[in-house]
Design a protein that fits this description.
It contains 8 helices and 11 strands. The chain is of the alpha/beta class. It has one domain: Vaccinia Virus protein VP39 (Rossmann fold), CATH 3.40.50. Bound molecules: S-adenosylmethionine. InterPro entries: SAM-dependent_MTases_sf (IPR029063).
Length: 248
């Protein structure tokens, strides 16, 4: 068995220790002693962007703009860049400065150096704050993979992104017909209902995992913004957020 080699260490903004390690061809980012992202989990990370972008409706004469939440190892950004036209913009929000630095260094070649693409722009910060501060209708698609999905574990504050308040903020930040796609470790739970309540038409796409959790099915939730959904969105709390063991 090849031993893990620690390539770099850092601290997340919430104080948790982070490491970047390599074992042969496999790379791993750990936070607070838990696995955050492995290069063996590339399939569902790419599927988030390919499925999310495929759900986009017709363009209305202006370039597409996509937000990816969570850079990780760059697979979702790379797949988004593959899915959108030459005049599109792909913004990527990343909380941890070291992850951005690692993607420009030792991780760059894993997903084909997506940050070197002139259509890509990194926004350093919390994606929840970036979405909340955005002008209404900024993006055609938001592709979210910051944690384990609707049952976030790595950063506790991420749970707000998956609650109805966070989903309504995403709704506001999307153009009519826009897509909010969310990666999830598990396809169990009531997240479709939360999306519906926030004004989206919800669909869940199972994605077979070929990486460390071989045999396990991850999920990509796709919420398509209903036109005039601000009026249609049902108000009230959403109960029964999904529970599951999480990515780690
Ligand atoms: C599981 S990884 C994403 C994997 C990515 N889809 C890929 O293709 O490699 C989660 C990423 O989200 C970042 N993150 C976690 N919480 C965040 C937040 N609130 N805002 C922005 N980025 C966040 C983590 O630092 C990490 O880089």
């Amino acid at each position: 068995m090849i031993p893990w080699e620690v390539l770099a260490e850092s601290t997340a903004p919430d104080g948790q220790a982070m490491t970047l390690s390599r074992r042969g061809h496999e790379y791993l980012i750990r936070v607070g002693g838990w696995d955050l992202m492995s290069s063996r989990d590339d399939v569902s990370a790419r599927a988030l962007a390919s499925i999310g972008c495929a759900a986009l409706g017709p363009r209305h004469g202006r370039p597409l703009r996509v937000l990816v939440g969570g850079l990780g190892m760059g697979y979702s950004v790379a797949a988004a860049l593959e899915a959108v036209p030459a005049d599109a913009e792909v913004e990527v929000a990343e909380l941890v400065p070291a992850v951005i630095e690692w993607n420009r260094g030792p991780l760059a070649s894993l997903a084909g150096a997506p940050l070197a693409d002139p259509r890509a722009r990194v926004l350093e910060g919390d994606v929840a704050e970036i979405i909340a501060a955005a002008e209404p209708g900024r993006w055609d698609a938001i592709l979210l993979d910051v944690d384990n999905g609707p049952d976030p574990l790595a950063h506790d504050q991420n749970s707000a992104l998956y609650g109805v308040g966070g989903l309504r903020a995403a709704h506001r930040a999307l153009r009519p017909g826009g897509v909010h796609a969310v990666w999830s470790y598990s396809r169990e739970g009531s997240f479709s209902r939360a999306l519906e309540r926030a004004g989206f038409e919800a669909k869940v796409h199972p994605v077979a995992n070929h990486g460390r959790d071989r045999g396990r099915t991850h999920a990509i939730w796709v919420g398509r913004r209903r036109d005039g959904a601000g009026k249609q969105a049902k108000r009230g709390p959403v109960k029964g957020r999904e529970r599951g063991p999480g990515r780690r």
